[in-house]
Amino acid sequence: MNETARLIGDDPIWLILIKVVGTFAFLVVMTLLTIWAERRVIGRMQQRPGPNRAGPFGMLQSLADGLKLAFKEDIRPVLADKWIYILAPVVSATPALVAFSVIPVGGEVTIFGERTALQLVELPVSLLVVLACASVGVYGIVLAGWSSGSPYPLLGALRSAAQVISYEIAMGLSFIAVILYAGTLSTSGIVAAQENGWFFALLPFSFVVYAIAMVGETNRAPFDLPEAESELVGGFHTEYSSLKFALFFLAEYINMVTVSALATTLFLGGWHAPWPLYLVGDGVLNTGWWPVLWFLLKTMLFLFVFVWLRGTLPRLRYDQFMNLGWKVLVPLSLVWICAVTAIRGIRNADLLGSQQFLFIGGGVVVALLILAFLVPDRKPPEEETAENEVPLSGGGYPVPPTDLRVPENPRATTVPTASGTRSRLPEAGQEPTSSTKEAPDGND
């Protein structure tokens, strides 16, 4: 049992309740601030002010929107399954709150004379708890789409199930290299292992895979396909309103905070002060309540990336999105894990020195780059179009036949009607006949 687990295990019940309420309040406040910051930042990107009426700089706009949702009429579709329809938002929001409980926000502090660690729960398998909560959270989305009794929510729910399963595999694979280097599944142990160097520099590929997977896991743009407004109206929560819709909204933003905090824990040293601040005063900035500040700044950096992606990139097509997960991230992650395992084995066995290892590794990287530039791109031979096959354009859409001929100077004709005469053109390639010739005018 490490020191963090011992401190948390000795917490009295009143301190545990303070931590629970504090964690919930922190997540709700971070949700309100993230929504406000998202609207302000995207407004700045699009050269408009964003919310600026409610409170200073519009900071109370998110609170006003939450109160508005609470007083809206709660409408339930006639065809909806009543109890599952009510239960789905709760199932979606609860795991998002539970997952944050294993994140270490800071080190050892004293609260009302009681020594403790700024972490709600410390487990030997904390990373598995995060993956389990992510797996359970998708049930709320699936049940919401199925119980609504409408086709668009059902399609959004099916998309979300496929999306979360795909990118949760990539996310889990990105954990493995971190676990190999840290030697533990405990989040506090992973933070302690980064005291002398952060894992984002040591394991750059794992960091990139996790950064992509966390966007797909939270259904955020450009991966917000389960709630694509242009295709599915609103996706799985189309039939929800009032507080039930607010729970889905809360779950999405709490998930954003949780995966950002987990990225900070795994790859950016957790609550440790950045270089060179940790050198100040023999590490005094890594003690007391200072680590909370560094943790919040790193987490807010990832939240800004979420907002930046939403304001910058268009939504991917569903086939492109699934190809990225199954054909790119998962295979490359498996290759990366094999490489990391081989490197750890070679270094632990002392088969190669540091200089020899760097020399061989650099040579392999240079050889791969040379092959990537020298190997020509072989284009597949163009297939001959069948005689009766409709040709396709570059985008895959059928184009009209090219053998249509329109007369250069079609003669306008008039035909008598009840209200007078109107013009009519002869068909393509048809000579005007007596029935289509111009009717004589009375003045001729």
What report would you give on this structure?
- This protein has 444 residues and is mainly alpha-helical.
- The protein has one domain (3-340).
- It has 14 helices and four strands.
- The chain has helices spanning 3-9, 13-45, 61-70, 82-99, 126-147, 151-182, 187-193, 199-202, 204-217, 229-232, 242-267, 290-312, 318-349, 354-374; strands at 108-111, 114-117, 413-417, 420-424.
- Strand 3 (413-417) and strand 4 form a beta hairpin.
- The chain is globular.
- Residues 434-440 have low confidence and may be disordered.
The first-to-last residue Cα distance is 111 Å
Low-confidence segments: 434-440
The level of helicity is 55-70%
Give the strand order of the largest sheet, numbering strands 1, 2, ... along the chain: 1-2
Q: Count every helix, treating DSSP H or I runs of 4 or more residues as helices.
A: 14
Structural class: mainly alpha
Nearest-angstrom radius of gyration?
A: 31 Å
Mean pLDDT: 81
Share in β-strands: under 5%
The largest pleated sheet is described as: 2 strands, antiparallel
Main location: membrane
GO molecular function, one term: quinone binding
Pfam families: NADHdh
Keywords: Cell membrane, Membrane, NAD, Quinone, Translocase, Transmembrane, Transmembrane helix, Ubiquinone
